[in-house]
Every structure is written in C-alpha cells, then in structure tokens.
Amino acid sequence: MQLKAKAKINLTLDVLYKRPDGYHEVEMIMQTLELADIIHIEESEETRVICNHPFVPEDQGNLVYKAVEEIKRYCNIDKNVKIHIEKNIPVAAGLGGGSSDCAATLKGLNQMWNLGLEDETLEKIGLKLGADVPFFIKGGTQLAQGIGEKLTPLPSPPPMWVVLGKANMGVSTKEVYTNLNLASIRKRPNTQGMINAIETGDIKEICNNLCNVLETVTLKKYSTVRNIKNRMAQMGANGVLMSGSGPTVFGLCNTYDKAVRIAKNLETLTEEVYVTKFC
Ligand code: ATP
C-alpha cells in the first residue's frame, strides 16, 4: 500500500495563552500542499520503519512507529508492518512532515486492516501522538483551535502557487514556544478576516491577512529567515509568511511563472527551494 503524506503551511497562527497543563491554546488556519512524503506499508513479521533521510529516526522515536503501536493498542491488533518513508518534505521545517506521516499511517492501517474507524476516531488517536496530527487526517483547509484538536473545515481558497524557502537549519518547535513572549506580541492574526477572505475567494485579502505570531521568535533570531522573507516580498510574491515555528518561509503567487522566477532568485540565498501548490 502506498499513501501520500502532504506538507502544510499556516495561513494564520495565533497563540492565545499558556494553559496550566503547559500546552498553548492556539488558533490557526492550516492548508495542505501538493508537496508530500510517500509512505509505503506492507505486512511484516516485525514492525520496522525505514526512512531515506539522515535526520529522521527509524526507531520508536519516529511518529510513524508510534502510530503503528497506538492503533494496534486501540484496536487490540497483533499484526506487524514494515513502513518505508520516502521523505520529500524538509525535516524540522514548520511544514508538519512528521505529523503528516503519522496521520497517513493511521489512515493506511485503518484501510489495510479493515478497522472501519471514522475520521473522528483517527483524529482522537492522532492527538495522543501530536497536536498537529488530527489536522492531517482530513487535510485541506481547516481552522484548528484548542491545542490543534478542535477542527473546523473551511472551503478551499482559490488555487495559488506556493514557493517554499528553507534556511539551512532545523528549528525546534518546543524551543520556539518556550521563547515566545506573549506580552510583547504587537500584531496578531485577524482569524475571522482570513476566514471571510477564504470564503469569498479574495486572494488579495488572503495575502493581507497572513500572520504568524511565532515569527516574533524565529525571525528575530535568524537573519537568513528574515532575508528569505524579504527577498520573496521584493520579488513580487502576493503574500509572504513563515510557516509554523519556521524556518520555512512561503510565498503565495497568483501565477506559476512568478513562483518559478522567485524560486530561481531564492537559490542564491538557500539551496532548499520548492515550488508547490494548495492541495
Ligand atoms: P513540528 O512543528 O510538529 O515539530 P516540523 O515540520 O517543524 O513539525 P518535523 O519534520 O515533523 O518538523 O520533524 C520534527 C522532528 O520530529 C524531527 O527532528 C525528527 O527527529 C522527528 N520525527 C519523528 N518522526 C518523524 C517523521 N516521520 N518525519 C520527520 N521527522 C520525524
């Protein structure tokens, strides 16, 4: 069995407050992309995860491995699988690669083992493995609230090309949240404004409403991320924003030609540049 595990970007990301249990209450609009990892699943004597990327663990630390264990426990299953992850999504990049692989594995095993679990159940199992995992069960365009588990599907925005530019390093999401000073944030997303823009298919307003409060941490710390963002804006991207905790910056473009022109130019700043689209 072969499945696609799509990357995501955050069109908005707001952190409302830190909860007593240590988690942050968030409000974000997420969008899946065509850029995807490929997950191959086959029955096997023992559970094994293999990945072609040097920074991705192949042991119990891999979210795919955890997904297998968790769904087996939930459904009381005694079977094993070998899973091969073909990594195309940059790692520790703010594009949700690990969470997406995890969600794809839950969906794949549900099908392969005829478990008959509803999406809502898969989202509940996924939440135990990571706050972004539930979003990837359905993907598309969704508003995520709570710690990411309260999901509201939104209509698809108009098709747009997306240039991704990633500085040559990984960023730890945990570290970014630790360094976030909520009191110092001046600009917050207008989440309802973005929802209205998506509902009316207004590209200009979608671009005007792009906002991510985690930029206050990552852009401040890394000049390369700032440079990539500035360059995309100078080159005429319709809208630019950092995704998740970074370091990937995305530029939204209304034409393919523009996206390719920006991507070519960005190659002078970083090797990791991708052109993809909403999916
Ligand atoms: P998040 O914001 O959830 O941290 P991200 O897109 O910034 O997502 P990921 O690519 O998911 O980051 O990787 C974060 C870390 O998770 C990696 O450094 C890696 O060690 C670990 N990891 C575990 N499983 C996977 C997986 N299947 N793919 C990628 N990374 C994984």
TrEMBL record:
InterPro entries: GHMP_kinase_C_dom, GHMP_kinase_C_sf, GHMP_kinase_N_dom, IspE, Ribosomal_Su5_D2-typ_SF, Ribsml_uS5_D2-typ_fold_subgr. ATP binds at residues 90-100. The active site is at residues 8, 132. Residues 195-266 form the GHMP kinase C-terminal domain. Keywords: ATP-binding, Isoprene biosynthesis, Kinase, Nucleotide-binding, Transferase. It is an enzyme of class 2 (transferase). GO terms for molecular function: 4-(cytidine 5'-diphospho)-2-C-methyl-D-erythritol kinase activity; ATP binding. Pathway: Isoprenoid biosynthesis; isopentenyl diphosphate biosynthesis via DXP pathway; isopentenyl diphosphate from 1-deoxy-D-xylulose 5-phosphate: step 3/6. It catalyses: 4-CDP-2-C-methyl-D-erythritol + ATP = 4-CDP-2-C-methyl-D-erythritol 2-phosphate + ADP + H(+). One of its GO terms (biological process) is terpenoid biosynthetic process. Residues 62-140 form the GHMP kinase N-terminal domain. Its EC number is 2.7.1.148. Pfam families: GHMP_kinases_C, GHMP_kinases_N. Belongs to the GHMP kinase family. IspE subfamily. Catalyzes the phosphorylation of the position 2 hydroxy group of 4-diphosphocytidyl-2C-methyl-D-erythritol. This is 4-diphosphocytidyl-2-C-methyl-D-erythritol kinase. It comes from Anaerobranca gottschalkii DSM 13577. The lineage of its organism: Bacteria, Bacillati, Bacillota, Clostridia, Eubacteriales.
